[in-house]
Amino acid sequence: MKTFKRQMMKQIRQATVCLYLLLTMLFLSMSMLHSETVDVYVGDPNSTEWSPIAPFTYDWENSLAQTIYTADELTEVGLISSIEYTYNSNSHTISGSNVAVYMANIWDDIDEFTTNTSWIPFENFTLVYDGELPYHPPGLNPLTLVLDNPFNYQGGTLVIYTWLKFRPTWPAGCPFLQTKDEDRFRTIHIVSMSDNLHPLSPPPGQLSNNVPNITITITPNDNIGHLSGVVTHNDVPLEGVRVIVNDSTRGILTDDFGQYALNRLSEGVISITVSKPGFFTQEIDNIIIIEGEITTLDISMESIVSVSGIVIAGDTGESIEGALVVLEVDIGNQRLSLWYETTTDDMGQFILEDIYPDIVYTLTITIDGYKDYVELNIEIGIEEIYLGNISLIEIPYPPQNVYAELFKDSVVVSWEAATPSPISMENGEWRMENIPLNKIGKNRVFESYKIYRFLEIDIDDENLWTILDTDVTELSYIDMTWLECINGKYIYAVKAVYTEENISEPAFSNVIEKEIELLPPTDFTASVDGSTVTLSWIKPESEPLGYGLYRGELPLHRSTVGRRSYLLLILETTYVDYEVPVGNHVYSLQAIYENGESEVVSIEVEIRVSDGDENEIPILTELVGNYPNPFNPSTTIRYNLSVESMVRIDIFNIRGQLVKTLVNEYQVIGRYTEVWHADDVPSGVYLYRLETSASVEVKRMVLMK
Description:
The chain is mainly beta and 705 residues long.
């Protein structure tokens, strides 16, 4: 028996020597790669608190524990190569137990466990040690674990996840030196007598404010720099803003003055994410970290707000479910167009979240059966906005199939009720169901019809409509005032009136015509000046489209109205006929209507002198006029000069823009003509101006292509 013990002790000493040599070689190799290592001790070395709950609970067959070490306790960042706990096993050894250790960087504002289920998720951890615990003799000893996979600690909170794998024996307790945190639960743990614990899915555990004392060996990062700055909103410092280095777990919260400092960052180019509830999250790229220097980056954040309200029916006050609520703005040449949308719930409530502030928006609410609600100029600041109750006006559906029919000296107008639901009498009230029933399902009350009459040409101007009746409850109406109407084409309109003065769009009838008397022009006169005849007349009351004018059998302006042909329809009540041959001439004039012509009125004139006889010197410098007018595509402009002068004739469009200069030269006394060919300009009214040293004169002409 003694021989056996001696052999065992010899093997243990040999194993210890081998382990020592192995650790020595490992540390030597690490010292070749890095200039130095730093031992960071976390905990109170004078503590007298001992507990078996973490990192490993040796009183039980199986245990799990997570412990939080905060950023202010860890003074270095870099590669963690080993960890060391202090234990007291009395007369027992802890060798031979299989354990696994995991590490994770998390947000440094997570500094405690709040519930018995608030384990840090397993996917955040990296396995750093998996195997048997090294031999340690009984008594008060350090427990050192050289990590199989050194952990790259980049700052923030460090969480150590320890797993004592199942053992079928129940050894005596082995407490570890602890430091009690009086304010926070920084350890969560669970034990079991069976093989049912795994770090992937831990069951609810127990919270403890005991934190195992630990020594963490770190090889600090080389080539490091620092990043700091102030985060503000509208030039006011922001507290509690998260500033995190992307693709790492380095992060920090701004202090009361909006300041942040990320120390010991690796040299190079990094990006950060800046976030705070109620503000837009920002990602900032291409931040250069320089060895031994502090990079300063001040950040301005934009707040986000929400807009909420309740949508109700205007007549009943009941909530409306399923209404589409849109808040939008077109920033135009600025950054972007913004669009937020949602739908109301069964209580008519809506909330639009994450709204970009300091912008004026347009709110639109739409749903079948109601008029679109549009509110302009909603100013969104930095405060939450509650719009209260928003009333939608029900669509008052118009009647259908309005028909007007002449009956003796009156007009009978009839129509059908709004589809698809018929009007009915209920409890002494006319009622019509809302559309569509599957979305609204309420009744809206019908009250009466309004009847209108107007000329067909006034259909787009309701101010010119005649109101015949405003309290019709039947589906027909007799217009007894028809005989009082002037001649013309008429249309009837019917509107449905509902509760709260909700009035439908008009429904229109067919055109019904009162016979128009085709009146001729009156006071047809003519004046003669040489070979020029000026004709004038008075427009009849029956509103013709224009006039047809003949000299003998010759139509002076060709156009087509119905089956008759004229050169061009004359729109004015005057006409100048130039270069009329010597002799007697009969001019005939008709008013032209859409459905015919008036009777002809005539006048006879005598021309005693031709243009060829007009060789006398002009007594006036004047712009005589143009012929023909209207014209297509050319016209002749006539003018006289009584003195020698520089002469300029310009053509302008109705906007006053110069179109053509016909003459720009010095001319002697005489009578002149110039032809303007208007092939390259559009139809319209044009002005032509004669400018001489003595006068300026302007006349108008009409090009009708």
